[in-house]
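Q: I'm a student working through a structural biology exercise. My instructor gave each of us a protein and asked us to get a predicted structure, then write a short paragraph describing it. Mine is Bifunctional protein FolD. I'm not confident about reading structure output yet, so if you can add a plain explanation after the tokens, that would really help. Here is the sequence I was given:
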Amino acid sequence: MSAQILDGNATAKAILNDLIAEVSRLSEQTGKRPVLATVIVGDDPASHTYVKMKVNRCRKVGIEPRQITLPAESSTEQVVSEVRKLSEDDSVDGILVQHPAPAQVDEKQVFEAIDPDKDVDGVTAGSLAAMAFKEQGFRSATPGGIMRLFEEYGIELAGRHTIVVGRSRILGIPMGLLLLAENATVTYCHSKTVDLKDHVSQADIVVAAAGQPGLIAGDWIKTGAVVADAGYADNAGDVEFDVAADRAAWITPVPGGVGPMTIACLLEQTVESHRRRHGLD
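A: Happy to help. First, here is the predicted structure for Bifunctional protein FolD. I'll explain a few features afterward.
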């Protein structure tokens, strides 16, 4: 393997260690701990495992976790009602609605019920606009985590040809907006893209965000490119790692690359929300 590793585990650990001290300092000033509320609908095992991981990380850094679990048969209106209660609860600093929700729940309506000032997962239309125009707001957690990795390892973005493979509201779309805001030249690819191989092979930076294991063959990667693989299913990413690692200059492992950064970014933004809401910018 010739590529250097973009180590999400190590970078996330450093961020969380910094947050321990920051939460302690803020709690002394405000007399309160930051609070992150998570809403989860149904009993999907993977979602519950992920929420449990987030809760454990919250406790590690001193953030107070609150979990609201709703029945799988909940309607959009019921979920929206719970989210609005959290938006109006002055003790709550951040709100996370665990994705995916059951099919009968309109996630867009639920997301838009989140107070933008508490949207620490960066899923509202207001947050998407803030990312596009570099205004004050919160980044979508996974794209934000990838950007932090790029910053940590000094990956130059301005002017570079970047491919984002995926167009979801919580990953692909905001990823491209963040890259564009840093002056990268961005191309979105997706399931309807013709000649995906040709697009990927021209890219200086590839962000894989489709959630389809092995979608991107390793030999498609341009020599010297940067690869951030946000896909994860069956313990594998979207990119054929072993072959891609022989061609890329930098690459994220799966697991241990993007995943830890998602949680670190979420918690960091929860602390930032607490700071802003208490006038401590």
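A: Here are two points you could use in your paragraph. The chain has a mean pLDDT of 96. Residues 8-30 form the longest helix (23 residues). It's a good idea to check both against the output above yourself.
Q: Great, thank you!
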